[in-house]
Design goal:
Helix 1 crosses helix 9. The protein folds into two domains: 125 residues, Rossmann fold; 173 residues, Dihydrodipicolinate Reductase, domain 2. A seven-stranded mixed beta sheet has the order 8-9-7-10-13-12-11. The chain has nine helices and 13 strands. Helix content is 31%, strand content 20%. By secondary structure, it is α/β, with parallel strands linked by helices. The longest helix is centred in the last third of the chain and has 16 residues. The two termini are 19 Å apart. The protein binds NADPH dihydro-nicotinamide-adenine-dinucleotide phosphate and N-acetyl-L-glutamyl 5-phosphate. The site of NADPH dihydro-nicotinamide-adenine-dinucleotide phosphate has 27 residues, from helix 1, helix 3, helix 6 and helix 9. It catalyses: N-acetyl-L-glutamate 5-semialdehyde + phosphate + NADP(+) = N-acetyl-L-glutamyl 5-phosphate + NADPH + H(+).
Length: 313
């Protein structure tokens, strides 16, 4: 059995990466749009409706447009954009989120995949909320260090053009404290207050790590770093793409430094708890184009179609 797949936005950063994943597979037939018709609404609509699964690798507005073009009840959309991540009727494409999430992805014809920062944040925080260690009313903060491919073609071009000394050093952004991932971070962790979130983009292509610093006093009374790490281990037991590292994992550090690129070219997420005295850092690392986008989209397709979840990843 071969499934028909269309990638709307096939020439973009996430679309190209999805096509690389799919190229090695013989169980999917990729429907290609002619280069000169990439933005032709009628041709996109035809291919979207001809597909069993269509990936939307588009800016938010174009994703909303694509969703409105579907008339075939068989087509399953997997949207990589921010457009539908907290919209009712769309399943959140993160199978490891909680028990039952895979069933939702299997049953849904509309799947919204998480943002790259949001994936890491949610995977780090959700188990602590579910285990009752972190109150849904807690006020948390997070930083994210990301490679520039997270900004898509235009940011890649900016960095790769060279000649701008300002791009050589890491650049904090979203300082208006309204990053577009905040709504999904809240909706899918259960946190009632938006985290104070500062992403930082650096002069490297890909790789991302979100850090959530916590005072143990912010957690349930008496919580230890060991219990935080154990909650992550328990939540992700049996998850093939999630690796919970030992508490204060010294092996992970290279002479004391953390490598944000160590999950690159994989669909893996590594989770860490570092702790000393009354403070801990919970960290999640992933490839923003792997589990942060294209790998996650292919994984969601595998789950939806009832295939081996790791196929092609
Ligand atoms: N890069 C990343 O790490 C991640 C990205 N995402 C999200 O995935 C989506 C795609 O991102 P990314 O691939 O990085 O972005 P890119 O800018 O690299 O690619 C977007 C593609 O969409 C095309 N496009 C724009 N408008 C239309 C339209 N109306 N019809 C058809 N095609 C159109 C663009 O065409 P053209 O080539 O002409 O510009 C481009 O090829 C975005 O919503 C992004 O936020 C999600 C997680 C991580
Ligand atoms: C470096 C950089 O700019 N990264 C992007 C996140 C990429 C991503 O996850 O985008 P979507 O939410 O649109 O899917 C940002 O912070 O806006």
């Amino acid at each position: 059995m071969s499934f028909k797949v269309f990638v709307d936005g096939q020439e973009g950063t996430t679309g190209l990466r999805i096509n690389e994943y799919l190229a090695a597979r013989n169980d999917v037939e990729v429907l290609r749009i002619d280069a000169d018709k990439r933005k032709d609404a009628a041709e996109r609509a035809r291919l979207l409706n001809a597909a069993d699964v269509a990936f939307l690798c588009l800016p938010d507005d174009a994703s909303r447009e694509a969703a409105a073009m579907i008339t075939n009840p068989n087509t399953c959309l997997i949207d990589a954009s921010t457009a539908h991540r907290t919209v009712p009727g769309w399943a959140f494409g993160l199978p490891e989120l909680a028990p039952g999430q895979r069933d939702k992805i299997r049953a849904a014809k509309r799947i919204a995949n998480p943002g790259c920062h949001a994936s890491a944040f949610i995977l780090a925080v959700r188990p602590l909320v579910d285990a009752g260690l972190l109150s849904a009313d807690a006020g948390v903060t997070a930083t994210s260090i990301t490679g520039y491919s997270g900004g898509g073609k235009s940011m890649i071009a900016q960095y790769e053009a060279g000649g701008d000394a300002r791009l050589m050093s890491p650049r904090p952004y979203a300082l208006g404290l309204a990053h577009k991932h905040l709504p999904e971070m809240m909706a899918h962790t259960g946190l009632r207050m938006a985290p104070v979130f500062m992403p930082i983009v650096g002069n490297f292509y890909k790789g991302l790590a979100v850090t959530v610093p916590l005072h143990l006093s912010q957690l349930r009374a008496g919580t230890t770093p060991e219990q935080v790490q154990a909650a992550l281990v328990a939540h992700y037991a049996g998850e093939r793409f999630i690796r919970v590292m030992p508490l204060r994992d010294a092996d992970t550090l290279n002479e004391g430094f953390f490598d944000v690129q160590a999950c690159n070219d994989s669909n893996r997420v590594d989770l860490f708890v570092f702790g000393s005295g009354t403070q801990i850092l919970v960290m999640a690392r992933l490839d923003n184009l792997g589990k942060g986008a294209s790998g996650a989209a292919v994984q969601a397709m595998n789950v939806h179609l009832g295939l081996d979840e790791g196929l092609g990843l």
